[in-house]
Design goal:
Elements (H helix, E strand, L loop, with lengths): L2 E3 L9 H7 L8 E3 L7 H5 L6 H13 L5 H12 L10 E5 L2 E5 L9 H19 L3 E6 L3 H10 L5 E8 L5 H8 L6 E6 L3 H13 L1 H6 L2 E2 L6 H17 L7 E6 L4 H11 L4 E8 L4 H8 L1 E2 L20 H8 L4 H14 L2 E2 L2 H10 L1 E4 L2 H15 L5 H12 L7 E5 L7 H8 L7 H6 L7 E3 L3 H11 L8
Parallel strand pairs: 4-14, 5-6, 5-8, 6-7, 7-15, 9-10, 9-14, 10-13
Antiparallel strand pairs: 1-2, 3-4, 11-12
Helix pairs in contact: 3-4, 3-10, 4-5, 5-6, 5-10, 6-7, 10-11, 16-17, 16-18
Bound molecules: pyridoxal-5'-phosphate (PLP).
Pyridoxal-5'-phosphate binds next to helix 11.
């Protein structure tokens, strides 16, 4: 399998190179140059297999010869051995034709674990093969940092630096990052907000000298390896509910458009998905684009579903490439327009394709709370606020025929205050979360200054230093 950039300037790369690069050198995002196809017979054969086997069948065609099959199988097994439920992504029925797909049974209780556990092992392997080291730098608004640290801690070939905005992540989220004692883990509390943290990381990636000398790699949601691992649970859940004999619909709480884009890819590979619903909170750039055809970031409003408080939806570029007829020049011109005018408009044909492929809707704060409450009263099930956004939007979507699966992206105990407000009591806390509350924390505080960041990374990264 070969990969190309949405902006057309990188030529063709293999899987391992795309994995280690993260963002393409031309500023674009990597995508496969063709989509693997599953026949009806192959889809039927997913019935009754376990999650690890499904993961192997879905991911192998994207990886090809870059990882031998037996090694891929053991990477998958080890990755999902960290999950508390060996079904990895269990389905829970909450209505006559309504299911939640629980993606939060991993070590940090958000769906980011599903992909990050695989990504870390694939990256570590690729680096060991080349005899190289890498420095991972990632900005987090909450869930990504913890998942990345949990997945990359203790790995020989990798040092990880995570920037969180000081005082602006929840206590549970901060402790998940700062109580990990491994020496290759470095936490930075940045004097600033998430956009500042993200801005510093972007500045590092755009500085080719620093990027090359420190071998900086990215693991945020634009890394193809993360998308690939997220395609799997669409297959496993759809087949469990009767695909390919009946189509299934999905409602996906959406921020950076990674999770729902994985569903779009699953459909391109032959899985019969009827509807893909983009569910946003009031930071609704994607719902507005679907409605009006204009992509226009506005200011970010803090909500009870903070992992979706995003206005620049990075993975949307991959979809734009697809609905724009796979023309890199079109992407380059849209991104230039976004940079100079602060928005861009889709052509009629592009908007038509967006609407053919997706439904979209938003849920405000009151609807989110009401949905958690109603679900609890009807079923006793406690959902987190991100999941509630997905459920609220699904329930508002008209003309639904197929069974609907709502992706449940976080454990309710990660957001105890909102849940308590909705149902009058705090959600039960998993043991490992309780234990984290007493462990020692470790982080440094840095000014919002790129040179300070570079200095700290140079001092602590093992890249370029003798192996110890
Ligand atoms: C990251 C995240 C999302 C949004 O996923 P995207 O792939 O960015 O659209 C939704 N819910 C939770 C809990 C998350 O951590």
């Amino acid at each position: 399998m070969k990969y190309i950039s949405t902006r057309g300037e990188t030529g063709e790369l293999g899987f391992n190179d795309v994995l280690l690069a993260g963002l393409a050198r031309d500023g674009g995002l990597y995508i496969p140059n063709k989509w693997p196809q599953f026949s009806l017979e192959e889809l039927k054969a997913f019935a009754g297999i376990d999650y690890n086997d499904a993961a192997f069948r879905v991911m192998q065609p994207f990886i090809g010869e870059d990882v031998p099959e037996n090694e891929l199988r053991s990477i998958i097994e080890n990755a999902y051995g960290t999950f508390s439920n060996k079904n990895v992504a269990p389905l829970v029925q909450v209505g006559s034709s309504e299911w939640l797909l629980e993606l939060f049974r991993g070590p940090t209780f958000a769906f980011k674990d599903v992909a990050m556990q695989v990504l870390a092992r694939l990256m570590d392997r690729a680096l060991q093969q080349k005899g190289e080291r890498a420095t991972i730098v990632v900005a987090t608004s909450g869930d990504t940092g913890g998942a990345a640290i949990e997945a990359f801690k203790g790995r020989d070939a990798i040092d990880i630096f995570v920037l969180h905005p000081k005082g602006r992540v929840s206590e549970v989220q901060r402790r998940q990052m700062t109580t990990v004692p491994d020496p290759n883990v470095h936490n930075i509390a940045l004097e600033g907000n998430f956009d500042d943290a993200q801005g510093l990381v972007k500045a590092l990636f755009n500085n080719s000298e620093v990027r090359d000398s420190l071998k900086i790699a990215g693991v945020n949601s634009i890394n193809w390896g993360r998308i690939m691992a997220q395609i799997v649970y669409y297959f496993s859940s759809a087949v469990a509910l009767g695909a390919p004999f009946r189509p299934i619909s999905y409602s996906v709480p959406t921020g950076n458009f990674g999770d729902i884009y994985a569903g779009y890819v699953a459909r391109k590979m032959g899985l019969p998905i009827e509807r893909l619903i983009i569910a946003t909170n009031v930071n609704d750039i994607l719902a507005r684009t679907h409605e009006t055809g204009r992509y226009e970031p506005l200011g970010v409003v803090p909500t009870s579903s903070p992992s979706m408080d995003i206005q620049i939806s990075s993975n949307f570029e991959r979809l734009l490439f697809d609905i724009g007829g796979e023309i890199p020049a079109r992407i380059v011109s849209l991104m230039e327009e976004l940079g100079s005018k602060g928005s861009f408009a889709l052509l009629d044909g592009e908007l038509l394709k967006l609407r053919e492929g997706f439904s979209a809707g938003r849920a405000d704060e009151e609807e989110t709370i009401d949905t958690i409450k109603a679900l609890y009263e009807d079923t006793g099930y406690v959902a987190d606020p991100h999941t509630a956004v997905g459920l609220a939007v699904a329930r508002k979507t008209e003309n639904m025929n197929a069974p609907i699966v709502v992706l449940s992206t976080a454990h309710p105990a990660k957001f105890p205050d909102v849940v308590e407000k909705a149902i009058g009591k705090a959600p039960d806390q998993p043991l490992s979360m309780t234990e984290q509350a007493t462990l020692e924390e470790r982080y440094v505080v840095l000014e919002n200054d790129v040179d300070a960041l570079i200095g700290f990374i140079e001092e602590n990264s093992r890249v370029g230093k003798a192996a110890s």
